[in-house]
Amino acid sequence: MINVLYFARLREQLDTESEELEVHPELKDMSRLTQSLRQRGGAWAEVFAGRETVLMAVNQEVASGDTPIKDGDEIAYFPLVTGG
After folding, report:
1. What is the pLDDT of residues 27-79, one digit of tens each?
2. Are strands 54-58 and 74-79 parallel, antiparallel or unpaired?
3. Which of 41, 31, 42, 43 lies closest to 6 in space, CA to CA?
4. End-to-end CA distance of the chain
5. In terms of pTM, does the model score above 0.85?
6. What is the distance between the alpha carbons of residues 74 and 13, in angstroms, rounded to a whole number?
7. 45 Cβ partners below 8 Å, 6+ apart?
8. Structural domains in the chain, sorted by start
9. Which of 16, 21, 23, 84 has the smallest C-beta neighbourhood within 10 Å, fewest atoms?
């Protein structure tokens, strides 16, 4: 399982702050995970459509699309500007 966290406006738009997901072989990197989330449709498609910058982190380190993910990882999505 991976723990996926959503911060700031993403949390509001998606109406969730976190979720646990099983890691399937096809979800081997951040790009594929993001694509899978986008395919949920609705607000998920809007948030992950690429029109606005959404930053990603794996285990509290900034990640890119080709960053691999594995069981036990903590994934975070957050907008470019996050207030405190």
Report:
1. 899 999 999 999 999 999 999 998 788 999 999 999 999 999 999 999 999 99
2. antiparallel
3. 43
4. 29
5. yes
6. 20
7. 38, 39
8. 2-79 (3.10.20.30)
9. 84
Residues in the chain, total: 84
At 34, list the tokens: 């993001």
Contact assessment for residue 78 and residue 55, using Cβ atoms and an 8 Å cutoff: yes
Q: Could you tell me the two tokens for 68?
A: 């691999």
User: At 5, is the secondary structure helix, strand, or coil?
Assistant: strand
**Block residue for tokens 């994934």:** 75
| 8 A C-beta contact, residue 10 and residue 78 | yes
